[in-house]
Amino acid sequence: MKRVAILISGGGSNMVALCRSMRGDHPARPVLVLSNDPAAGGLNRAREMGIPTAAIDHRPFGADRAAFEAELVKPLLQAEPDIICLAGFMRVLTAGFVNRFAGRMLNIHPSLLPKYPGLHTHARAIAAGDTEAGCTVHEVTPVLDDGPILGQARVPILPGDTPDSLAARVLEQEHRLYPAVLRRFAEGDRTPVYLA
Ligand code: GAR
């Protein structure tokens, strides 16, 4: 059985979707939900599901990412994860941290990478006049929102869409895509998953 740690910063809806999927004959189980924000709503949702949680507040560390990560890594290593899923984790990780977990850290990003790495993806897609948007799960490498693509799901951009309405449509697909990719990845298969 593969052990999965999930890193969150907020409400954790992707984390919930991942945890709900890891049941029955699934080859993985959640062993830790870890946040950089002790007030992240997702921590309570994880506790309600009986999953161990931990939080390391990034704020006391200021701009010292390495010092923050030196603390973040402690509960993570204790959980002995085989796979780490970033699910709405909004801190940029240093190369030192990422390389430590090379080949076993995944991220979900709310755009069709390589389009729109970084923030405000939905506003940027609408402003560009794009007719479709979506989400991507990829392996994490030291370059932000880069790394081999493991899956994508697409949605149309509709007339009158706002960043919020588009985000909601994409988020529904994130909840389908991430569990599908995690299952395949946990089975040792890195063939990308493309959802319509
Ligand atoms: C999701 O839309 C995820 O793709 C995005 O944050 C949201 C988290 O929602 N991630 C990023 O923007 C990472 N750069 P959730 O907490 O409900 O899963």
UniProtKB/TrEMBL annotation:
The answer to whether UniProt assigns keyword Transmembrane to this entry is no
In this chain, N(1)-(5-phospho-beta-D-ribosyl)glycinamide is annotated as bound at G12, S13, N14
According to its UniProt record, the EC number is 2.1.2.2
What positions belong to coiled-coil segments? Answer: none
Provide the site residues for: Raises pKa of active site His: D145
Protein keywords: Purine biosynthesis, Transferase
Pathway, according to UniProt? Purine metabolism; IMP biosynthesis via de novo pathway; N(2)-formyl-N(1)-(5-phospho-D-ribosyl)glycinamide from N(1)-(5-phospho-D-ribosyl)glycinamide (10-formyl THF route): step 1/1
Can you name a GO cellular component term?
Answer: cytosol
InterPro entries the record matches: Formyl_transf_N, Formyl_transf_N_sf, GART
Q: Which residues form the Formyl transferase N-terminal domain?
A: 2-182
Q: Which reaction does it catalyse?
A: N(1)-(5-phospho-beta-D-ribosyl)glycinamide + (6R)-10-formyltetrahydrofolate = N(2)-formyl-N(1)-(5-phospho-beta-D-ribosyl)glycinamide + (6S)-5,6,7,8-tetrahydrofolate + H(+)
Could you name the domain of life of the organism this protein comes from? Bacteria
Instruction: State the active site.
Output: H109 (proton donor)
SUPFAM superfamilies linked: Formyltransferase (SSF53328)
Q: Does the keyword Glycosyltransferase apply?
A: no
A Gene Ontology molecular-function term? phosphoribosylglycinamide formyltransferase activity
What's this chain's function?
A: Catalyzes the transfer of a formyl group from 10-formyltetrahydrofolate to 5-phospho-ribosyl-glycinamide (GAR), producing 5-phospho-ribosyl-N-formylglycinamide (FGAR) and tetrahydrofolate.
Question: According to its UniProt record, which protein family does this protein belong to?
Answer: Belongs to the GART family.
PANTHER family named in the record: PHOSPHORIBOSYLGLYCINAMIDE FORMYLTRANSFERASE
State what protein this is by name: Phosphoribosylglycinamide formyltransferase
